Amino acid sequence: MKTKLEGKIAVVTGAAKGIGAAIAQALAAQGAAVVVNYVSDQANADRIVSTITMQGGKAIAVQADVANSTDVQRLFAKVKEVFGQVDILVNNAAISRFGPVESITETDFQQQYHTNVLGPILTIQQALNYFPPAGGSIINISSVAGQNPGPYTSLYASTKAALNALTISLSRELALRNIRVNTVAPGNTDTEGARALGLAGTDIEKALLAATPLGRVGKPEEVAPMVAFLASDDAAWITGEKIATSGGMR
Asked: Reading across the β-sheet that carries 33-38, which strands appear in turn?
């Protein structure tokens, strides 16, 4: 039986763990060959590649910092060398740090905007050189915070709002090239990064749960299927959309 992404080549940034790892595995399960991008966690990236290949899929791990143009060029050169083209780009790599506005430093701003906003711009610029004439799909991983930011998330939320706007603009700019651009916006999701924020048991976590109609924290595996759908021909008539995977949180 033919799978929905058979013969497609997917690049997933920040795919060594969390939502990115779940996306990489979901795309592979639908038949795509997957490039597992990572910036520093080679061990986890290799583990994801091993998991995919043991299940009969194709995957490679490629180190690159998406905020660095030279790294991004090298990433896509490797994709070209191994697979020949790109059909699907998932911009998942991101940095999130929360705190009061008084605590934001120039370094915080530069790190979050360079990774969360400049990173997708750089990867899209390179991917455009490798999409086939038939086009492809770009999926940006945003956050419900980009539309409905809570306290202490001002810097992070603003980067996601920028990514949402980028999606809409590029969906219109790239439509004539048959490249669809959409956003998936997770809500409160149980990832390594989320745990590192130290919100467990805090009033912030309680507020997040209270704002989630389904009343619980999501799982990366509950975000990934939407990305696989948007990457497939089932979503051929969908572009410029932002779809929340958030348990009803807005």
From this structure: 59-63, 33-38, 9-12, 88-91, 136-141, 179-186, 242-245
Q: Choosing from 113, 130, 152, 156, which is the catalytic residue?
A: 156
Q: What is the DSSP letter of 20?
A: H
Residue count of the chain, please give it. 250
Q: Judge whether 180 and 235 are in contact, CB under 8 Å.
A: yes
Tens digits of per-residue pLDDT, 21-80?
999 999 999 999 999 999 999 999 999 999 999 999 999 999 999 999 999 999 999 999
For tokens 């605590």, the residue is 103
Residue found by looking up tokens 């959409």 in the block: 182
Which of the pair, 248 or 227, is modelled with greater confidence? 227
Identify which of 86, 180, 92, 172 has the alpha carbon closest to the alpha carbon of residue 126.
86
**pTM for the structure as a whole:** 0.95
Q: Is 183 helix (H, G, I), strand (E, B) or coil?
A: strand
156 catalytic per annotation: yes
Q: Which domains does the chain have, with CATH numbers?
A: 9-245 (3.40.50.720)
- Give the mean pLDDT of the chain: 94
CA angle (7, 9, 15) in 5-degree steps? 135
